[in-house]
Specification:
33% of the residues lie in helices and 17% in strands. The protein contains nine helices and 14 strands. It has an eight-stranded parallel β-barrel, surrounded by five helices. It has a two-stranded antiparallel ribbon with strand order 1-2. The longest helix is centred in the middle third of the chain and has 22 residues, at 179-200. The radius of gyration is 19 Å and the shape is globular.
């Protein structure tokens, strides 16, 4: 997602599940096809993927590298065995270059602009430019879906009080906002974004909503949900997710995952909130126990639920988080514990912001790779 003053998406996930009571549809609902856009429902996932965030980088050592991007996309295809990459973040040039490379590798592309804390006009221009590029890719034969954005109440100023993303998160957590006013503004901007997306892109259109958002999904072809619930039984997830199927449209899980410490799966998308960012260097609060198994079990368990429901797609959040390095010998500063990434960032010179680094697979990466490989159609 977007990098806002050095703060990445992993630091302000605020879509805690409030719980919803959905309209239950019959299990194993009949196959259907949208003749206008060619979308269909079937058992199992049509697309298995991962979120790949592009941004400037919080420090010099994490700045974007075209060479690294190419290697990452090849690893997503050949090592993770994903067929889909969610290319998101700020910077049109970075995002379009990544999407073009993904298309060359034969990956299905979920292309999503995410620009924060700028005027509405700038955000919409950013959306339109990205959508026009997605349309060019589509006309050239690439497999691409276009999402007009992510959780607008979080990223777009004026819907929730607060000048920055973090200000708006705090106002939401403190309840210092007017729910009805927020919904009116959110509806108005979502409608405007959808209309603009339709005007520049003629394939499948979507939006990545927080799971408790109220969205008019008649505006879109695909229902997109950032999903971070935790329940004791798979049936509980199914019951909640069927709420989104009531629109009769394909459902994509645009984000799912958790962090790599014991208990992280129970945090409902707030697992990142265990880092003291005021310290230098930043450090983990409390006495957390690192557990890659916790992360792996959660993502695979959810993936099995999504497959059982025949959802359109699911994208694990996320491939790599360069500004959350793993420090095996220093648990207090092992920021990877609070990262949703399925790979760990290893610095060549720990604590040096200019250090080069490499990534290594976490248990969640290996578990997803096994699962994706079994589900991939050859």
């Amino acid at each position: 997602m977007v990098n806002t003053q050095g703060i990445t998406r992993g630091r302000f996930l605020a879509a805690a599940a409030l719980g919803t009571t959905g309209v239950l549809l019959p299990a194993g609902w009949a196959a259907a096809t949208d003749g206008r856009r060619g979308l269909g429902f079937r058992r199992g996932l049509a697309h298995r993927g991962v979120v790949y965030t592009v941004g400037e980088g919080g420090v010099p050592g994490t700045a974007r590298s075209p060479h690294r991007m190419h290697a990452d996309l090849r690893a997503i295809r050949d090592e993770l065995h994903a067929d889909t990459v969610d290319v998101t973040g700020d910077g049109v040039d970075r995002r379009t270059a990544t999407a073009a490379q993904a298309a060359e590798l034969g990956l299905h592309i979920w292309l999503q602009p995410t620009l924060a804390d700028l005027p509405e006009r700038d955000i919409l221009e950013h959306l339109a430019e990205t959508g026009r590029f997605a349309e060019r890719l589509r006309r050239q034969g690439a497999s691409v879906d276009f999402s007009v954005g992510c959780e607008f109440w979080l990223f777009v100023p004026g819907i929730v009080p607060g000048a920055t993303v973090l200000d708006r998160v705090q106002n939401l957590l403190d309840g210092t906002f007017h729910p009805a006013r927020m919904q009116r503004k959110l509806d108005a901007f979502t409608k405007k974004a959808a209309a603009l997306g339709r005007s520049v892109f003629h394939g499948n259109l979507s939006y990545a909503a927080a799971q408790d958002d109220k969205v008019d999904w008649n505006l879109f072809d695909i229902v997109g949900i950032d999903y971070y619930s935790h329940f004791p039984q798979p049936a509980d997830y199914v019951r909640e997710l069927r709420h989104y199927q009531r629109w009769g449209k394909p459902v994509t899980i645009t984000e799912f995952g958790t962090c790599a410490y014991k208990g992280a799966e129970k945090t409902a998308g707030m697992g990142w909130n265990v880092v003291d960012y005021d310290k230098d260097p930043e450090e983990i609060k409390g006495h957390l126990i690192r557990s890659e198994h916790t992360q792996a079990a959660y993502v695979v368990g959810l993936l099995e639920v999504f497959e059982s429901m025949g959802l359109y797609g699911a994208m694990a959040f996320e491939f790599v988080t360069p500004d959350a390095p793993h420090r095996a010998d220093d648990p207090r500063h092992d920021l990877d514990m609070a990262s949703y990434a399925i790979t760990k960032t290893i610095e060549d010179r720990p604590y040096d912001p200019r250090s080069t680094w490499h990534r290594e697979p976490k248990e969640a990466f290996r578990a997803l790779a096994r699962h994706y490989r079994r589900g991939r159609v050859s």
